[in-house]
Amino acid sequence: MDVSLGALRERLLEMRAWDSSGTTFDKRVRSALNAALDRLAGDVPEALVPDEEHIVLRKETVSGNHNLAINAEGSDVNVLRITDTAGVNLGNASANATAKAWKDNTLKTDGTWDGIMHLEVKDGSGQWHRRQCREWWVSGEIVYVSLDRRWDTTDTLMTFRIYQPEFFMRDDVMQVLEPARIYDSTRQQVWAVDTAGAYRQDMVDFQGETKGRPYRFYRSRHFQLPPPRSAPEVALTGQEADWVGPWQQGKFSFVYTYVWGKREDEWQKSPIGISDPVWESAPSPISLEIDHDSKGAAGKKIKIQMTNIDQMTNYGVSGTTRKTRSGLRLRLYVARSKVKTFGGSPASYNNVEKAGIYYLLTEIDPDTVTPDASFTWDGSIIPDYYRPMKHSTGYFAYRPYPQHDARYELDFRVLRLPKKFIDDQDTAPIQRDAVSTLIELSLYYLCLQDGVDQAGAAAHLNRYNELAQRYRLRYANPGKAVEPVPLDGTTLRRRFGTFSSSVD
């Protein structure tokens, strides 16, 4: 069965006996189908096609196990410095061997610790402080970490713990289908617990006192990066022979996002070599279009200038240790609306899409790559067809229990928010036997848009409700079977029915 936008529109026309459509009507149908798809995902999640999500839990570092200490950076209240227990920097030849081995073999400065890892630090008075790590880096002999909040003591040689209290799914995950499994020889199941139940059972990590192989997880906080507020500025630059390709010249526009952290490359690295972020903001406004077919534009490079987020977040101040170390990066997307025709080869006109969809072009770290947070494109980088831009609405955190005592990989089955229809070739990510349900709801929204056929709207809504209920009953557990789930030595039993096998 064809469930593309074009096929669904034809089916809607047939069911209402409409003879023809036009541009305005096509937009109305697309809007109705997208609204119906969103509602169907919420009303009948069983109608969605499941997907997989892969999560890495990183092993903690306890300072006493590695002869490490942490120190206030006297010149910068947003930075701490890691040394050995004698205060010697870890790149120094006289540093403790165990501490140096931690720096060489465990410390991650590639972005995978940024944002995800947290600190617990015990100051000289015995008080514990908690901070989220913005960015980890090494400068010369010194290991630094920038913090999400100020550090106002001047203590040195403090004990500490680096740990990952939570993990984040990608932003389009709407439901987690339990259980997850740990990817090792045990294949241990990790079951969901509702948030209130987790707190009632005291499933919290207190200074790493409860550690082991995780067997529960629960949903915690929601986090969202603020988006860029201004569009990127674009301009042609250089000479007519500066565009080297192989990407064809054409007409382009750009948007960008802010990103923080990096996911493990094993599962989530882009084919063009860019690691997927842990968090990504919604996109900026769209830039002006640049057209290589305009007068004097052929063969020139394109310069795209973005906002320097380090400057805006107080991490761009000259003379400070934290300069350029906000952890935030700029992720640039490009959309093509045509291929250059003037003076070109006809054979090259149709070998790339011109759909106006934004695809990942590159990612830069402001200040460290270019002081003005800009990127100059000469066509040598081909946009990543597998990384279209998404409009992020934020991320949910999930906490494992107990606190993991080693590195673990978790495999989840999830339901993702359906992608919106844009082009006629886009398909609905739903089960084939749920198409009739989607059609009835789409017709309901079309009748509402018309504003005339309210009786028809009511009839289609009633039919949708009937089909949705029938679909739920078909895929729910009709016998309401009960599966025993041991919890800390108890005999708690969980009842499974409609929707009960997913995380709230």
Describe the structure.
With 504 residues, the protein is an alpha+beta fold. It folds into four domains: 1-48 and 418-504; 61-164, Elongation Factor Tu (Ef-tu), domain 3; 165-223 and 399-412, no CATH class; 233-392, no CATH class. The protein has eight helices and 27 strands. It has helices spanning 5-16, 23-43, 97-105, 195-200, 265-268, 309-312, 435-450, 454-475; strands at residues 51-57, 61-62, 68-72, 79-84, 118-122, 128-139, 142-147, 159-163, 167-168, 173-182, 189-192, 211-212, 216-223, 233-237, 250-260, 279-280, 290-291, 301-305, 328-339, 359-364, 374-377, 384-388, 395-401, 403-404, 408-416, 482-484, 493-495. A hairpin with a 2-residue loop joins β6 (128-139) and β7. α2 (23-43) packs across α7 (435-450). The longest helix has 22 residues, at 454-475. It is flat.
List keywords for this structure.
flat, alpha+beta, seven-stranded mixed beta sheet, 504 residues, Elongation Factor Tu (Ef-tu), domain 3, disordered C terminus, 27 strands, 30% strand
Low-confidence stretches: 478-484, 488-504
Strand order of the largest sheet: 1-25-10-11-13-23-9
What coarse outline follows from CA principal-axis ratios? flat
Distance between the termini: 32 Å
Average pLDDT reading: 88
Largest sheet: 7 strands, mixed
Beta percentage is 25-35%
Helical content (DSSP H or I, runs of 4+): 10-25%
Would you count the extended β strands for me?
27
How many domains? The number is 4
Assign the structural class, choosing from mainly alpha, mainly beta, alpha/beta, alpha+beta, or little secondary structure. alpha+beta
What count of helical segments does DSSP give?
8
